[in-house]
Write a structure and sequence with these properties.
The protein is mostly helical and 105 residues long. The chain is 87% helix and 0% strand. The chain has three helices and no strands. The longest helix has 44 residues, at 61-104.
């Protein structure tokens, strides 16, 4: 089996350009995941907020507790998505820094 260097040189390809493209794709992929996770978090928080606003003055304690439970669940799901967003952003930053470091050499 050929190494990556052997393959790129036999095909007349620029190894540095291919590696740079792969790294750039990695950064973009992580950034897209962060955006998606952020959108999901926003939607979950909005769902919880909507559920809380649905309350009525003559609502019973049992119904109120169910509504609060639903809102809390939506909020926790939103926090999970926020955590995923932060992880994806950190991965994008790390990949970008690695890319910059290798370009300086």
């Amino acid at each position: 089996m050929k190494s990556f260097k052997e393959f790129t040189s036999s095909q007349g390809l620029d190894e540095g350009l291919i590696r740079s493209g792969i790294r750039t794709g990695s950064v973009l992929s992580h950034a897209r995941r962060a955006k998606t996770a952020g959108d999901k978090a926003g939607a979950a928080f909005e769902r919880g907020r909507t559920v809380l606003k649905r309350g009525q003055a003559d609502e019973g304690t049992s119904d109120r507790l169910k509504r609060l439970e639903t809102a809390l669940d939506a909020s926790l799901i939103g926090h999970i998505h926020t955590r995923n967003q932060i992880g994806s952003l950190v991965a994008a930053v790390v990949a970008g820094q690695i890319m910059r470091r290798k370009q300086r050499r």
